[in-house]
Specification:
There is one protein chain. By secondary structure, this protein is of the alpha/beta class. The chain folds into 3 domains: about 10-135, 3-Layer(aba) Sandwich (Rossmann fold), CATH 3.40.50; about 150-320, P-loop containing nucleotide triphosphate hydrolases (Rossmann fold), CATH 3.40.50.300; about 320-390, Helicase, Ruva Protein, domain 3 (Orthogonal Bundle). It is about 45% helix and about 15% strand. It has helices at about 20-30, 40-50, 70-75, 95-100, 110-140, 140-145, 150-165, 180-190, 210-220, 235-240, 255-265, 295-300, 305-310, 325-340, 350-360, 365-380, 420-430, 435-445, 450-455, and strands spanning about 10-15, 35-40, 55-60, 80-85, 105, 170-175, 200-205, 220, 235, 245-250, 270, 280, 285-290, 315, 345-350, 385. Helix 7 packs across helix 8 and helix 17 packs across helix 18 (about 435-445).
């Protein structure tokens, strides 16, 4: 049986005769498939809706209607299984079966070699179809997964991605602040590796309780706990088989579950909740964390053994404020993306707008910059994005270090005019911000244009600026 080399095909046999069900199950199981059986089409449809099968053998009368059109109940959905119709009298042709949603048909009595050859042919066709769809998806999102920028850090990161992509089984740890693009790095590694044709699966370890996260990762057997389904459920290690599993926010994983994950990484196998049988763990594991895991180990919140198991290769994604050279490239990249998406002719950024983007510290990192450019693309009708199209920010550093010190302001003797007070205050703020116009304007509670006018009014110096066009002020 030809598969993608790792994933086990899932096959369902639907037939009212127990002998036929058991015979096909034994034959196909020995051929390397995971096989389930049922006597009626209603139960088959319910099972397939819960977890889709790769292939379904269904008797033409299994639905109780003796009508092959009942197959349409199975052949719908985004990823329908390959359906082979078992025709009791052999009277249904392959062409007729295909009109009702089946891939092919085969007459009874069933012949072993015919069944195996048909199974291989259907699964190979399904695998090829999946690869084509995956390639089409990769072409469509190619630019969206590229790491954009020219900073030294990004060049080093890109080099490291290429290096680890050639080691498809190595565990990787990615650290960085929220919004820096850790998932993007993980996806890039996956897309450049030999696992690219496999699934890329992400789970946020901070979003689920310990019991739910364990069931989500490893799956569970029927009746493993109250509320468990009768068929059980495959976990993400199974779903990511042959591909990559990204464990985001790994630092938030409960300690007990950390120990179980350590065993999986060491033994390359796992057990479903409530199960007694070991299953192979063939997904590559990439972990991501906004926290420094070494510090978490030292604080006793993360298992040291698991840290060193994950710490084979560690990649750090620096915040955007530490690679400001990439801001213009990223901003134009996002603007081009949203312009095409919205059907707008957006040609770039004005000098003031780009200066504002470049001077901001971006506490939300690349994600915040992307949101800001999306806002501008929505507000700007066409042409250049100007400063007035950007979102309003409160301004200032998040730690409050740019608050104006409450020193006493010494006025010139005999001069108590507001103009003198204003000149002193504007001069003070400009000096404190090293003439960062955006930050100074925010601290003073005025816009940049007004600040430029006050600089000219008080003779504090000059700085070239672009003319601010009439545009939205919100």
């Amino acid at each position: 049986m030809k598969t993608d080399g790792t994933a086990i095909p899932r096959i369902l046999v639907v037939d009212g005769e127990d002998a036929t069900r058991q015979g096909l199950k034994a034959l196909l199981t020995a051929h390397g498939a995971w096989v389930e059986t049922t006597a009626n089409l209603e139960d088959a449809t319910r099972r397939n809706d819960h977890q889709p099968f790769d292939m379904v053998f269904v008797d033409s009368e299994a639905s109780g209607e003796a009508d092959p059109r009942a197959l349409t109940r199975l052949s719908g959905g985004d990823t329908p299984p390959e359906i082979v119709l078992l025709a009791s009298d052999g009277a249904i042709s392959s062409g007729e079966a295909m009109r009702y949603g089946a891939t092919d048909s085969i007459g009874k009595p069933l012949e072993r070699e015919h069944i195996l050859a048909l199974t291989d042919r259907c699964l190979e066709a399904r695998l090829l179809k999946a690869r084509v769809e995956r390639l089409q998806g990769r072409v469509q999102e190619l630019t969206s997964i590229e790491l954009v920028g020219q900073s030294a850090h990004l060049r080093q990161l890109s080099t490291r991605i290429e290096q680890v992509a050639h080691a498809p089984d190595t565990t990787i740890l990615i650290e960085g602040e929220s919004g820096t693009g850790k998932e993007l790095v993980a996806r890039s590694i996956h897309e450049m590796s030999s696992r690219r044709d496999g699934p890329f699966v992400v789970v946020n370890c901070a979003a689920l309780s310990e019991s739910l996260l364990e069931a989500e990762l490893f799956g569970y057997e029927a009746g493993a706990f109250r509320g468990a389904t009768r068929e059980g459920k495959e976990g993400l290690f199974s779903i990511a088989d042959g591909g990559t599993l990204l464990l985001d926010e790994i630092s938030e994983m409960p300690t007990n579950l950390q120990a179980k994950l350590l065993r999986v990484l060491q033994e390359r196998s796992y057990r479903r909740v409530g199960g007694a049988k070991d299953r192979p763990a063939r997904a590559r594991v990439i972990a991501a964390s906004t926290r420094n895991l070494m510090q978490e180990v030292q604080a006793g919140r993360f298992k040291e053994d698991l840290f060193y198991r994950l710490h084979v290769i560690t990649m750090k994604v620096v915040p955007l404020r530490d690679r400001t050279d990439d801001i213009p490239l990223l901003a134009h990249y996002f603007l081009d993306h949203f312009g095409r998406q919205m059907g707008k002719a957006l040609s770039g950024f004005s000098e003031d707008a780009m200066e504002t983007l470049s001077e901001r510290s971006w506490p939300g990192n690349v994600r915040e910059l992307k949101n800001a450019v999306e806002h501008a693309a929505i507000v700007c009708a066409a042409g250049l994005v100007d400063e007035c199209h950007l979102p309003r920010w409160d301004g200032g550093a998040p730690d409050g270090t740019d608050v104006i010190p409450r020193d006493t302001v010494e006025l010139p003797e005999g001069d108590r005019s507001l103009r003198s007070v204003e000149k002193i205050l504007v001069t003070m703020v400009l000096e404190e911000t090293a003439w960062n116009i955006s930050k100074a304007a925010s601290m003073l509670g005025i816009n940049r244009t007004t600040l430029y006018n006050k600089i000219k009014l008080h003779g504090l110096g000059s700085r070239p600026r672009a003319t601010v066009p009439d545009c939205l002020t919100s």
